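Working notes for the structural subgroup meeting. M.R. asked for a predicted model of this chain before we commit to crystallization trials. I am recording the input and output together here so anyone reviewing the notebook later can reproduce the run.

Input as submitted:
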Amino acid sequence: MKLGLENKVAVVTGSGRGIGAETARALAEEGARVVVTDINPETMAATTQALKADGFDVHGVVADVTRAADVERLVGETVERFGGLHVLVNNAGFPKDNYLTKMPEADWDLVTGVILKGAYLCSKTAVPHMMAQKWGRIINISSRAHLGNPGQANYSAAKAGLVGFTKALSYEEGKFNITVNAIAPGFVETELMRSLANYDAIRDKWLKATPMPRLGVPRDIADAVLFLASERAGFITGELLHVTGGRYSN
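Returned structure, recorded in token form:
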């Protein structure tokens, strides 16, 4: 199936590893020219080099998505190198879990800042380029946690905020042929998840509660991104796609 992504230019934030890295690879496999960007220089470089070694047209940029100057440099470098920007995947984000009464203010600010402010800054900077070319795709990586998880008030609030942001932006940008959608992954086996001290307990809980008899993998999310980025999804906007194996409630 042709997805219409050949020579499209895509930026995937937080793509040094995990879901972001797999999404960058999936887009590159469809012929897109991809900018890998992450705050971590080592993971950004490793993912960029791996994709280049496989013959893909990619570029790596170190950027902090909570800093306007970094985002402007990221988008400027993308347009200068590839001549445009068609697909933005706002993927950067991570949890710092604790019960609210024990949660440091810094952890609230960090988690909500990367997820929400990052999506705001990246979208605001990318949208004018999409408006000028009358074509664009913005895909925000939310989470099943938008429904609420104990110990994740910061993460759940930020991911729920992304859903509202998606719907609001879809109304603003539709007339420019720009679609804005969100994906809500469930439990996805990544390096970050496997590094958690309580990983085994979380994994076992998910397996018992999920209708599908397996955990998610990064490619499950990347494939959903491919569809929403494609020409096949040109009349879909303002939507939230759950990729959870069927699990919704706690």
